[in-house]
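User: My collaborator sent over this chain with a note saying "see what the structure looks like." That's all I know about it. Can you take a look?
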Amino acid sequence: MKLWAGRFSKEIDKKTNDFNSSISFDSRMYREDIEGSIAHAEMIGECGIIDKSESAAIIEGLKGILADIDSGKLTIDPNAEDIHTFIEGELTQRLGQTGKRLHTARSRNDQVAVDIRLYLKKEILNLKAQVKELITVLCNKAKQYADAVMPGYTHLQRAQPITFGHHLMAYAEMLLRDLDRLECAYKHTDSMPLGCGALATTTYPIDRTITARLLGFENICQNSLDGVSDRDFCMELASALSIIMVHLSRFSEEIIMWCSWEFKFVELDDAFSTGSSIMPQKKNPDIAELVRGKSGRVFGDLMTLLTVMKGIALAYNKDMQEDKEAVFDAVDTVKMCLTAFTPMIDTMRVLPENMRKAAANGFINATDCADYLVKKGLPFRDAYKATGTLVALCIEKNTTLEELPIDEYKKICDTFDEGVYEAISLENCVNGRRALGGPASVNVAAQAERVLKAIN
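Assistant: Without extra context I'll predict from the sequence alone. Here is the result:
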C-alpha cells in the first residue's frame, strides 16, 4: 500500500514503480529511520498530539522492528517504495490503527532529510577515525625515517635533498586539513530538519527541541523550506571526500613509482601486492593503483550531487532521490580505500640506501654548493654559474660533487677550499634547513609530534 494511494484510482505501473522506488539503496538507513520515528513518536506524545499510551506503543513497536531487522527475523521487502513506507507499513501491520498515528505532523520530506543527516553524521565520525589512523601511521613512520636522505623533486626532476620523513609529513599535513573539512561537513550536517514537514511545518503544536535533543542534534533547521530542500551538506561531504581522494591518489602515484626498479625506494608487503599471470618476476602495486583509479569515481559522485541540485526550485523535488546513491558511494569508496591504504603504508619496507644513492647522483646539493660561495662573498649569479659548470664537469667525468677533487673545484673558482665538502654533505644540506617547515630531522620529529597531538 502506497502512502499516497488515496488520490489515485489504480495501481502504479510495475516498471514505473521500479523506476520510482528507492528501497534498494535507502534501506541502509533503516536504523536511522527508526531512530527518527521513535523520537517523533515521543515528541508528539509529550506534546499531547497523540495519546501517550499510543506513543509508548509505537515506540515499543518500532524497537521491535529494529530488533527483528538486526537479527534477520524481519527481511526488508525489496518491493516497498522506500524504507519509510516499509517500516510504517510493518508498524501498522503490528499495531493496527495505532501504527497509523506515527506519521501525524510529519512528511516523508522531513523524514528522509533527518534520516540522511543521522546516517551521514555517523559515517563522518567513522571517516575521521580512519583518517586519523592513517595520519598516525605517517607520523610514526616519519619519526622513524627523519634522517633518511632522499631526493626532493620538482617537475619530477631531482631538486634538493630532503628526508623520507619530511616527505611523509607533507601528506600528514594534507590529511590534517582533510580532518578539518570533515569536521566542517559534520557541523553543517548537524542540524535537525524534522518538523519542517513537506515544506511549511505543521499546524500541530510540535516541539522540535524535543526531537533535536532525543536525536542528538546540535542545531535545528531554522527555515522549513531550507530544511527539506537543500543537500549542501551532502555536497560538502562529497567535496571533502574528493579532496581526500586527491591526496590518496597523489600518494599512490608516488608509491607506484617508488616501487619500480627505476626508483626502488620502497617495497610493498606481499599482502598488499599482486603478481602477473604470465610474468613470474612481477610484484604489482595494485592497491595503490586501485586507490588512484577510484578517485575518479568519488569525483563523479560529487559532480552528480552538484548537477542534481543546481537547477531545481524549492522545495523538495524527486530529483533529490538521486542524492543518496552518490553520497553513499563516495563514503563507501573512501572508507574502502583508507581500509586498504593505511596498512599498506604501515607495512611497506623502506629502502633508505637506495634513496641516499639517488640523492647523491642527482646533484641535489648544487644549491648548497652555490650558497657556500655566496657565504664567502661571491655574488649569487657568479656562484650559480660556477656551480653549474662543476655539475657539467661531474657529468662528463661520471662522478659527483662530493667525490670531485678539490683541484677541480679550484680550476673553476679559486674561492673553493676543503670546507666545501662539509657544506655539500647531503646530511648537512638537510639538517642545515632548520627554518620552520624545513626538512631538518629535528623539524620532522617535532612536526610529527605536533600533528599526533593535534589528532589526539
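A starting point for your reply to your collaborator: The chain has three domains: 18-104, 117-144+162-190+218-357, 360-441.
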